[in-house]
Amino acid sequence: MQIIWMFLTYLAMLAFHLVAEWLPLNGMTANAVNKEYQASLLPADFGFIIWGVICLALFISMISVASGKTQVSPRWVPTFITSNFFKYFLHD
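-> structure tokens emitted (92 positions)
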């Protein structure tokens, strides 16, 4: 049951990020807002590629856990689920 919650929260987090970028709010995507308001410290555009790598690594690790090749301590499952919920609220 825990692996199901891991997958559900992961997929919800991924869907939230995709919707936030593909469906503009007030005609602006998150990327457009980021470019309009200048900040004193902003990573280069290619720096955001790391999030794709992180999401892919998380997905591969969840597949490994679901297949039984890798074991995860049950105490880490709530941490994973909680981190996915925090990613909803901390999105750009």
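The mean pLDDT is 81.
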